[in-house]
Amino acid sequence: MQIEVGAVLEGKVTGITNFGAFVDLDSNTSGMVHISEVSTSFVNDINEFLKVGDTVKVKVMGVNEKGKISLSIRRAMENNERPERKPKGEFRPKNDRPFNNRERSNEPQKPKTESNSFEDMMARFKQSSDEKFMDLKRKNGEVKRNRRATKQ
Length: 152
What we know:
This protein is α+β, with helices and mostly antiparallel strands.
């Protein structure tokens, strides 16, 4: 049997593990459905959804170089149940905020002057941390001031 990625096939569950289920597509071909691909809802225990011997529809998600076949029950169901997508610009979520003026303008945004390299961020964090630590010490009276005794 020739397996094509994207094909929706019917198979029989032959084994269940804590990370997924093995499905025979025919007498020579089997694949695995990962636990995350069993249902559209969260799957804590795969045994609540599948049993050995169940016949399921699966979608072929991929075949790797070793010949292992990745299957999905969830995506096989989506083909029949997926609503049509609305064209861009028609749908806007209620909680979506309007763009700010800078995003609306046609002018290019100015690059940030602040450097964002890891070393710079760590240096700023260390400086901030040291300042906060010194403030705490001062409040608790732990910092002794270096004063030279004047000779009289």
